[in-house]
Design the sequence.
């Protein structure tokens, strides 16, 4: 009997010791891991006992806030114009966060180390703890114009599109719209059963509304890539300028293949004479594929890739807090024929609307490409600034001379009678001089529509750029018809807010 009791006592002691070790291990080494687990109701409840900070636009519009809640949690997250701003705010649910909600979660919830002193003061003065306010760089008028433009052309089509607008001199994201979109309010509910139903419904939708098509969806750039090809050509020889003559045949024979490159609808390239020569400005403004296909073969895939890299392509390390970015790609072609196609934005070239905006932003800023950013600053409840973003250079895409050459060609696209975007010239837009480039991209992966993708990138005013825009509309057809009107609407909406009409 004593032996049996002894064994039981030893077993109980061992289990007690194991329990004690486990408890101490969890408290000493797993505290952070446990507290941040998505399904930790205690952590979620604690986080919702305080008023979460607001998210506001650069022009002061409140796009995310909180209101009192009568359930387990004290506060409920509320999103104003949720579908319009979903790519910006992301969402804050009881299980997870995305977008700016995720990037600044610690400060929004009021638990960030930068707020420790503020929280201590609130505690001793008996004030309720409150999260910090996050101000994003987005302009509400530009954002509304971007979303409404996409919605108008894509609603009910089953196709996707995205818009990004940048401040060329700083890199600040002025608009970031995606279609289709979703209402973050359905994911902010405190009802776990309803939340799961809403989440499952969104996950089943196709195309996915949860994907930020402005920065995550990559599609061919089409002729907008001629900005890169033209930049590489000017960089190769400092004596070249927009009036330099280039070979511009009606049909370009491609080596080592039976394929031949034609201009749109088999057109000749404007003023090209019997010897097949024209200025590069004329070829660019008319978007002559044969001209730029030949320039691409002369330059070679290596030179084109170097130029593409300088504009931000192939950059897997482009980190923008609050934004998920898929890298745009320029892969080295495996033949001269494919080099010709890649030089006109086909073959394996893929870009996001963000990258399209970066093309224009670099040219508009004299060749210097600024790093895009979305979060402007974070302020505590006492209005003290606890975090702010300073503009920084991402790369020197081209020299100022090359940038000026390309700028002249982009102005011709919109302002000259032969330009592919002449419908949006200065007279048509009330005196605003826009510089841009159209793209009509054949997309063999585009199963949603037999039409090519519509692409447009631009900046304005041309003589003092304040905004650069990139637009891609899947299956939209011609860039000048589908993408350009959206870009122009965003430009006009933003410039009106800074006193330019």
Sequence:
């Amino acid at each position: 009997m004593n032996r049996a009791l002894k064994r039981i006592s030893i077993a109980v002691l061992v289990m007690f010791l194991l329990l004690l070790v486990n408890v101490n291990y969890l408290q000493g080494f797993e505290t952070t891991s446990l507290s941040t687990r998505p399904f930790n109701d205690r952590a979620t409840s604690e986080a919702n006992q305080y008023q979460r900070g607001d998210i506001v636009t650069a022009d002061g519009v409140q796009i995310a806030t909180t209101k009192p809640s009568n359930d387990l949690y004290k506060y409920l997250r509320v999103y104003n114009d949720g579908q319009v701003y979903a790519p910006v705010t992301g969402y804050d649910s009881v299980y997870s966060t995305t977008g700016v909600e995720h990037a600044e979660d610690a400060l929004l919830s009021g638990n960030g180390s930068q707020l420790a002193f503020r929280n201590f003061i609130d505690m001793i003065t008996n004030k309720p703890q409150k999260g910090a306010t996050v101000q994003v760089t987005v302009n509400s008028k530009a954002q509304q114009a971007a979303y409404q433009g996409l919605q108008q052309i894509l609603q009910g089509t089953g196709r996707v599109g995205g818009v990004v607008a940048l401040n060329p001199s700083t890199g600040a994201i002025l608009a970031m719209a995606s279609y289709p979109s979703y209402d973050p309010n359905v994911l902010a509910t405190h009802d776990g059963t309803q939340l799961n139903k809403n989440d499952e419904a969104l996950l089943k939708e196709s195309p996915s509304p949860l994907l930020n098509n402005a920065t995550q969806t990559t599609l061919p750039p089409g002729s907008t890539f001629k900005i890169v090809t033209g930049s590489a050509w000017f960089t190769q020889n400092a004596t070249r300028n927009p009036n330099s003559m280039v070979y511009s045949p009606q049909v370009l024979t491609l080596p080592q293949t039976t394929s031949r490159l034609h201009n749109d609808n088999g057109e000749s390239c404007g003023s090209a004479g019997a010897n097949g020569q024209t200025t590069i400005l004329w070829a660019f403004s008319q978007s002559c594929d044969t001209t730029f296909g030949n320039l691409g073969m002369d330059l070679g895939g290596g030179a084109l890739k170097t130029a593409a890299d300088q504009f931000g392509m192939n950059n897997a390390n482009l980190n923008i807090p609050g934004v998920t970015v898929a890298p745009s790609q320029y892969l080295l072609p495996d033949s001269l024929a494919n080099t010709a196609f890649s030089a006109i934005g086909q073959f394996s070239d893929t870009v996001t609307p963000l990258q399209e905006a970066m093309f224009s932003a670099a040219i508009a800023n004299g060749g210097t490409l600024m790093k895009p950013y979305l979060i402007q600053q974070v302020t505590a409840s006492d209005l003290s600034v606890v975090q702010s973003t300073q503009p920084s250079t991402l790369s020197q895409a081209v020299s100022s001379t090359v940038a000026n050459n390309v700028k002249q060609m982009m102005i011709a696209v919109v302002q000259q009678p032969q330009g592919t975007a002449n419908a949006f010239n200065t007279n048509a837009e009330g005196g605003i001089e826009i510089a841009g480039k159209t793209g009509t991209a054949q997309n063999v992966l585009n199963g949603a529509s037999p039409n090519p993708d519509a692409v447009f990138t631009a900046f304005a005013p041309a003589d003092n750029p304040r905004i650069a825009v990139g637009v891609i509309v899947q299956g939209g057809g011609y860039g000048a018809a589908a993408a350009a009107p959206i870009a122009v609407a965003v430009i006009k909406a933003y410039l009106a807010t800074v006193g330019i009409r």
User: Anything to note?
Assistant: Residues 222-374+390-497 form a domain with the Beta-lactamase fold (CATH 3.40.710.10).
